[in-house]
Model the fold of this input.
Amino acid sequence: MPDAVALTWRQYRLERRMFWRNPSAAFFNFVLPLLFLVGGGAILSGNQDDLDKLVPAIAGMSVMSTTFTALAYNIVFLRERGVLKRIRGTPLPTGSYFGGVAANAVTNTALQIAIVVLAGRLFFGIGWPVHWGELVVFVLVGVVSFAALGVSFAHAIPNFESTAAYVNAVFLPVVFVSFYAFDTASAPAFVRGVADALPLKPLIEGLSGAIVTGSSLASNLGALAVIAGWGVVGGWLAVRGFSWEGRRG
Amino acid sequence: MRGIDLTVRRGEVFGLLGPNGAGKTTTVEILEGYRARTGGEVSVLGYDPAKRQIELRKRIGIVLQSGGIYSHVTPREALEHWASFYPRPRDVEEVLRLSGLEAKADARARTLSGGQLRRLDFALALVGDPELIFLDEPTTGFDPAARRDAWETVRNLREGGKTILLTTHYLDEAQALADRVAIVKDGRVLAVGPPRELMAHPPAHTPGAARYTVAYRGANGERVERQTEDPTWLLNELTNAALEKGERLEELSVGRPTLEDVYLELTADA
Done:
């Protein structure tokens, strides 16, 4: 067992190194959500109600982009390039491999949440998070669920060239619907229904409670259940449909 | 696959030969643990590869036909990482030197040429010091010099007591490297044996394969080629006739049957 732990750590360190060496991955994972934060903050500055919604919304989006988007990209790339197949032929335990990959994604999420929380404190007139524990719980459940969904979504993407199209076809509509329903209480019932059933808006609500409004974990259990439900479905699909090799021909 | 019954002995280089689609890669992938077999028994170093035990994978090395690597990793980092998977890895610097990657040890993988990436494939498969090595079409796309280097690597591994299972569709490669070969087609084994023996005593249903080719240019300048099972007798007859007439047998050559002849006879569509 210590062997497997040591190998997980080594895999994690390799993943970190590869992440920072890939400028476009670093950009899409870090810079883009921060640009949204800065841009949105500039437009909404002076309206504290709007800023109070912007910060948790960007935090939720950061969780999704560092896990769902990043993992779908990575796994399709490694699968189509034959890296996964090569790794599968070595004695590296499968758990150590995915442990390292997942820890890498979680590190990115944690860094981003830290930046967003810090920016909220310093620039957007929002204090430190009201409930740190609630923040940790929502981020953790969000990370696990969106990571599982990212891995299972990779299975639907046939080749690396089409990854951006597939990922954005899911990521952008989910972000728009969730942001809209979260921001506008008067959004049409249908839109609210869709947003409440998807995992991003419940995550944003939980983060909003933890960071801004102080609504307790107990009052957000419904939201947590929706995210966890997606996680269970995503986890099942991720394991069941996982492919170590690109399709031939 | 229709039933392949083969035994590879410890310490030998075993060649799996056959046309594209013959079932070579399928066979090897079952042995490597990538594919589940639908029937039959398979034992690799005493393990069932389908169970994918880590203990087995510590003792085998795999050079895939097309295995990729992280774009931004350097050969040295990749080898150090891979070495950490194995209980008794080889020295990374030594592997870099032996695989001819010293000059590129700290370059990003995406800047390596196709030949250098193939060397890295070999290096990654060997860094764990495995006892059994799978080489799936290891020299496809190589230039002649790189091919010779790869052959040299295989010979050195064999001298070091390693067992090697090689698939190839290059007959000269099998003839040059393999202690024994199996010729497969349509998921069936057509012949097994040392290349020399297959050439000397080809399977009964390949009558054309055993013939020597005697070629020369006759007195009238015409090129003549004759097939025989016994070149001694034919040469005697030809040289006697030429001496009697005071002629020369220009460009006289005797071609031995090659593995290619046996192979082509065996795999020809009836």
Q: What stands out?
A: Residues 18 and 31 of chain B are 17 Å apart (CA to CA). The longest strand of chain B covers residues 163-168. The two ends of chain B are 20 Å apart (CA to CA). Chain B touches chain A at residues 32-34, 54, 57-58, 60, 62, 64, 66-73, 77, 81-82, 84-86, 108, 124, 128 (CB under 8 Å).
